[in-house]
Amino acid sequence: MIPRHAFIAVYMVSNRKHGTLYIGVTSNLIRRAWQHREGEIDGFTKKYGLKRLVWYEHYESMVAAIQREKSLKKYKRDWKINLIERDNPHWNDLYVTLIS
């Protein structure tokens, strides 16, 4: 069994409910979410204060995850919001569920 922290994931972070969105892919979601929370990743997420992990999906391979990431980035904003709100209607920070 793969440890929880080592799974491949596509994820979205935001600064608030219905706020700015960023879609990324990682092989260690706990570490990456922590890096966003702490502002350790320079660029778009740091500039806009995107610290809240609001959505993620697990993947078996990095290739599949990257394909999903690219397809998500093509969808309209409303579709992405609906995807988030299907499982996380209040846009809670899911980081705490990963570490508990």
Q: How many separate structural domains?
A: 1
- Structural class call reads alpha+beta
Q: What's the main sheet like? A: 3 strands, antiparallel
Could you tell me how far the N terminus lies from the C terminus, measured between alpha carbons in angstroms? 18 Å
- pLDDT average, as an integer? 93
Using DSSP, what is the number of strands? Answer: 3
- The run of helices and strands is EEHHEHHH
Q: How many alpha or pi helices?
A: 5
Major β-sheet strand ordering:
2-1-3
Q: Indicate the proportion of strand residues.
A: 15-25%
Keywords:
100 residues; alpha+beta; three-stranded antiparallel sheet; 5 helices
What order do the helices and strands come in, and which of them pair?
Blueprint lengths: L7 E7 L6 E6 L2 H10 L5 H4 L4 E8 L2 H13 L2 H11 L7 H5 L1
Structure write-up:
It is a single chain. This protein is of the alpha+beta class and 100 residues long. 43% of the residues lie in helices and 21% in strands. It has one domain. The protein has helices at residues 29-38, 44-47, 62-74, 77-87, 95-99, and strands spanning 8-14, 21-26, 52-59. It has a three-stranded antiparallel sheet with strand order 2-1-3, with helices on both faces. Strand 1 (8-14) and strand 2 (21-26) form a beta hairpin.
Summarize it.
This protein is α+β, with helices and mostly antiparallel strands. The chain has five helices and three strands.
